Amino acid sequence: MSTVTHDSKGRPRIAVTGLGVVTSLGRGKADNWEALTAGRSGIKSIARFPTDDLRTAFAGTVDDTDFGPFSSAAALTAAMATAAGEEAVAQAGLGHDRTFPGPLYLATPPAEIEWPDRRAIYDAPAGASGNGYKRLLAAARSADWPELHSLCQFASVAERLAVTFGTRGLPVSVSTACASGATAIQLGVEAIRRGDTEAALCIGTDSSVQIEALIRFSLLSALSTRNDAPAAASRPFSKDRDGFVMAEGAGALVLESYEAALARGAEILGVVLGCGEKADDYHRTRSKPDGTAIIGAIRAAIEDAGVAPESIGYVNAHGTSTPENDRMEYLALRDVLGGHLDATPVSSNKSMIGHTLSASGAIEAVVSLLTIRNGVLPPTINYTNPDPEIPLDVVANVARPARVRTVLSNSFGFGGQNVSLVLGAP
User: Fold this and answer.
1) Cα–Cα nearest to 358, from 224, 158, 149, 183
2) What 3-state class would DSSP assign to 244?
């Protein structure tokens, strides 16, 4: 392990001292890593609500944990984030007695009250008790914000977590679509580099597998419709890919200045070498045909890391399994990595866990660091029909031993949000 505390640009190096994760494959790093390297899928038919007449009736839901049933998506969002955060904080050895020594950066979905709750409010008689419209108005008029606030997903999750972990300052909630998890990490990196803090807790969480979100993505023709074979539906980079698979989960990282982590004798699991972002104003759901925004994000991350493109040993791809995204990601990687791409493995965790939307960047950063530490590349499963227009080494179907020291992790979202991270060995 290096004892160098600052990077080539004179900034504090960013150490990762804690990791936590929850996905459809299980709760915790051990269960998830075992399933990912075994090539096992967590995608299944949805059992939590009726799917009659829906074009897509499956997802990567978090059902098989001890979280228990929840009355709302907000509650599950908070529970998954708490579980991932607790695992990361415990591993880091920070935050004893709810006193985490830094801020919270939380990536969450851009939603507040879910459709079933809004319908219940609409249907409630004017004088009814419970979650009726009249009571909601009374809460707002009397400034009884805790009651009204408890119904809202976006801000309340961060506040609950800030209390749970005792983070410092106001928690920051961020929503940059499917890049949100990576954005939360970037915010933590930048805060430490500025000297605002010595540590940051960065979490991405999402429980958007709800009826309304499923319908909206379906109307965009973004989802796979392979209802007869859910586990085989997510097929990143395959010629017969037909859309992404919605999923839920949470990923958490404890970031520290390298110097502070060394001083307290912490185990350093890896480092965040660089972050890059680039907005795309072309279309709400599509990327610019020339790929300049995605290329810009990847190139900016590599330049921020101060490494050469040929030093990238593995790419944890965004790899959603949609026809356009996979093609654009390949073209961007080809532009930035050039001929080095021919010798660089590129695989997609989403083939097994699905697309966890706001949480995906954080979850995949966790997996990227586990890849570096364990010396095994998770596969891209369901890869039986290669696309000749995307000639990548996708680590097809079976995990592969490989010692890599530097990983590029990509996260691209609707609305033109693009964030890439470069992660490295300590």
Assistant:
1) 183
2) strand
Residue range 14-112+152-424 in CATH 3.30.360.10: no
pTM: 0.92
Q: What is the pLDDT of residue 263?
A: 97
Q: Which range is most confident: 96-110, 116-130, 323-337?
A: 323-337
pLDDT of residue 145: 45
What single-letter amino acid sits at 165? F
Q: Is the pLDDT of residue 371 over 70?
A: yes
Q: Which residues contact 162 (CB under 8 A, 6 or more apart)?
A: 104, 170, 171
In the chain, where are the structural domains located?
14-112+152-424
Matching residue, tokens 């300590």: 426
- DSSP at 65: S
Cα–Cα distance for residue pair 340/310, rounded to 1 Å = 6
DSSP element (H, E) containing 353 = helix 350-353
178-215 pLDDT per residue, tens: 999 999 999 999 999 999 999 999 999 999 898 888 99
Residues marked active site are found at: 178, 318, 355
129 vs 426: which has the higher pLDDT: 426
Question: Tokens 């900016």 belong to which residue?
Answer: 300
Q: At what angle do helices 180-194 and 360-374 cross, to 10 degrees?
A: 70
